[in-house]
Write the structure tokens for this entry.
Amino acid sequence: MRALSLKDRDWAIGTGQPLAVIAGINVLESEDLALEIGQELKAICADLDLPCMFKASYDKANRSSITSYRGPGLDAGLKMLATVKAELDVPTLTDVHTPEQAEPAGEIVDILQVPAFLCRQTDLVVAIAKAADAKGALVQVKKAQFLAPWDTKNIVSKIGEVMPEKRVILCERGTSFGYNNLVVDMLGIQQMQALGCPVTIDATHAVQLPGADPRTSGASTGGRRDGVAVIARAAIAAGADGVFLEFHTDPDKALCDGPSCLPISDARALLSELKALHEIVN
């Protein structure tokens, strides 16, 4: 497995690198919230000497209900991400849902993310890879909930057709297990690393209960917030190269996936613990 880094940015992931942190908020709610969360995470990572990347979505297209909050949209959302990137001087990540969004998103962010449900959509994967390659950015692919870890080789191969260097990170986020449940197979981390890609753990989405939020009678996704740290610890102990986490100042009032995100007050203790685990394993 090789390491990947960003040109002109103090952020790297993979062999010989410290624990890579991709953290932020699920979906953009306001510029002020994004800056507040981003500033706190940057300060924590600086104290811990960890590479920090801010993540947020401008759109959440795979909502359970048509009435669910989706975000500010492409134009307004990219402006917010550009502000966060400039004011905090941190790299950024966002997910892209349609091929035509790849190029404008690539003008702003440092990692373009392929959403889990869409990782087999060839046109989208190719468009994201092209946009990232043109700007020297990276691609992170969320492994689909229905996909075996070793089958991500086909996605990496598609990206390699248009991005010869295959600057790809694979992300484990749980696999569908019966109805309204996800589990994480920790053995899959090494199986995906064997493809030559660094691997992150999305501990936030791995604790989702899809379509099972009792507050909305199944019109939104539930979650097990207490399990985020458990999944994160286990994955880093299993050899994951980085962690993907979502925070909020008041998770119960978050406009998207509140049951799965952590309060920002928990960030320092959790990242300190994960750093220590990563150093022991490596």
Q: What stands out?
A: The mean pLDDT is 92. Residues 172 and 193 are 11 Å apart (CA to CA).
